[in-house]
Design brief:
single chain, alpha/beta, Rossmann fold, 2 domains, 11 helices, methenyltetrahydrofolate cyclohydrolase activity, multifunctional enzyme, oxidoreductase
């Protein structure tokens, strides 16, 4: 089965649509004029329109000073705040992320929020957007990961690290691979579920027959303007039981999970119940 990320994302966004007069407001800081970053921001703005929430973009010059950017972030009064990544090399990414109040960190990248995930897992009202998207895809297909062998390629704090923790919370057996991993192909072939977030085209060329393959990687293809993932899709689609394409797979779901985080931040502020995954088992809750 080839996963349709746009279809599921649109379905979930409909359930998030805000109908009250008081609405959440998202603030986005965009540094520079990278076409890719602008494209990602435009997708988020479109999703905000679809669920009827307000959004404001602050566009800074490429050479903006770190103190100026942090001062601006600290003065923002939005319900949710995000800084579009990547940032220019002269800016310290972690310092800037940690200047966002953790309760407004809609990307869920602040160390406080990552520490909460280590303890509480999916019981947190905010989850990092791409890991949450992967979990949502697994739930869509009713994939029970208990005891399953998962090969996670990539260990970044954006995807690989938090996702591996969340999968372990679901009692999967997770192997985290990285650029120094020996015999990567063997780890891939042994896995029931392969998740790749390396940004390396055709890194995953073969998988075990019937494996689930989730492609989080994004990089430039050989043809100008073409976006490709980490998986050799044309080959692996004949081996996998479920596979996500690039584009149109994890990407739309990531934006969708961002909107869920924003709504949860706002609901908590209003004293309303927040979304918690209803598929979590009692074993998970008591772990």
């Amino acid at each position: 089965m080839i996963f349709n990320g746009n279809q599921l994302a649109n379905s979930i966004l409909q359930t998030l649509r805000v109908t009250s007069k008081i609405k959440p407001k998202l603030g986005i800081c965009l540094v520079g004029d990278s076409p890719a970053s602008k494209s990602y921001v435009n997708r988020k703005l479109k999703a905000c329109q679809e669920i009827n929430v307000d959004a404001e973009v602050f566009n800074f010059q490429e050479n903006v000073g770190q103190e100026q950017l942090i001062k601006h972030i600290q003065q923002m009064n939005h319900d949710g705040i995000l800084v579009q990544l990547p940032l220019p090399p002269h800016l310290n990414k972690l310092d800037i992320i940690h200047s966002i109040p953790y309760e407004k960190d809609v990307d869920c990248l602040h160390m406080h929020n990552l520490q909460r995930i280590l303890v509480y897992g999916e019981l947190c009202e905010m989850l990092p957007c791409t890991p949450a998207a992967v979990l949502q895809i697994l739930d869509y297909y009713d994939v029970n990961v208990i005891g399953k062998k998962v090969t996670m390629i990539g260990r970044s704090f954006l995807v690989g690290m938090p996702l591996s923790l969340l999968l372990q919370k679901r009692n999967a057996t997770v192997t985290v691979c990285h650029r120094e991993t020996l015999n990567l192909d063997q780890h891939i072939m042994n896995a029931d579920i392969v998740i790749s977030a390396a940004g390396h085209p055709k890194l995953v060329r073969n998988v075990k027959q019937g494996a689930i393959v989730i492609d989080v990687g994004i990089s430039q293809g050989e043809r100008k303007g073409k976006i490709v993932g980490d998986v050799d899709f044309d080959v692996v689609k004949n081996q996998a039981s479920i596979i996500t394409p690039v584009p149109g797979g994890v990407g739309p779901m990531t934006v969708c999970m961002l909107m869920r985080n924003l709504c949860n931040i706002w609901k908590k502020k209003q004293g309303q119940p927040v979304y918690i995954n209803p598929k979590l088992s009692d074993a998970y809750l008591n772990d």
